[in-house]
Specification:
228 residues, alpha+beta, Cyclin A, domain 1, SH3 type barrels, 2 domains, 6-stranded antiparallel β-sheet, 6 strands, 29% helix
Length: 228
């Protein structure tokens, strides 16, 4: 889906600043949110990481930019807890007021009134799967990524849409996030490492820059060399 979360590879956001000797948690509340994620999954608020990621993508855009990494997690967790019926928005509001917060504060979570169906937890550990079909592509093939945005979760970033790259590696089949995030089943798809030039992705820059992305087969189509 198009959203504030998908700004990787886009200009105008400045240099990535790496904090030296960064601690695991900057504050105790971040550790608490990390523990909430484990507890929420154990309580059945979500059954896979794809659903969790999509819940974070759906939080308030301003909160996404201002509340930090674990603040985003907290908004996503609240989305899922409310959608699963484990807590209500009223219960969360009451807790906020009890610890001194205001109902006028920016709230990250935006739970859906009609959430996606809940998928069962996968019986097979991990995300690697076996499928009874041959892959469409092989190492060295030229492929073009989809030009279309999708309304839900996807692992194809916006900056890599409608771009031509070369397949470097094929990784067998893996659980398909676009389906799994929405309770529509694992729908395993072949996964490929596709390499793009920086010029292909951004139209300018050092011709020696190469970017490799792991992309699922439904995102890709064969390239007609005559139309390049």
């Amino acid at each position: 889906m198009d959203g504030i979360h998908d700004f990787g590879g886009k200009p105008g956001h400045g240099q990535v600043v790496v904090e030296k000797h960064e601690p695991v948690f900057h504050s105790r509340w971040e550790a608490a949110v990390f523990a909430m994620a484990a507890a929420g999954a154990a309580a059945g608020a979500w059954t896979n990481t794809d659903r969790f990621r999509h819940a974070i993508e759906r939080i308030d855009p301003v909160a996404y930019l201002t509340q930090g990494y674990y603040g985003r997690w907290l908004g996503g967790i609240e989305n899922l807890l409310v959608e699963a019926g484990i807590v209500t928005r009223e219960m969360i509001n009451a807790r906020v007021q009890k610890i001194g917060g205001s109902l006028q504060d920016l709230v990250a979570s935006r739970p859906e009134l009609v959430p996606d169906p809940m998928s069962e937890a996968g019986a097979t550990p991990g995300s690697s799967r076996t499928v009874n079909r041959k892959p469409r592509f092989a190492t060295g093939d030229l492929v073009r990524t989809s030009a279309q945005a999708v309304p839900g979760h996807t692992r194809l970033p916006a900056y890599a849409r409608d771009k031509v790259g070369t397949i470097l590696t094929m990784h067998e089949a893996w659980v398909y996030p676009d389906s799994n995030a929405h309770g529509l089943g694992e729908d395993p798809q072949y996964l490929y490492t596709v390499q793009f030039t920086g010029i292909e992705l951004w139209g300018k820059g050092d011709e020696n820059i190469k970017v490799s992305l792991d992309l699922f087969e439904p995102y890709l189509s064969a390239v007609d060399l005559g139309n390049l």
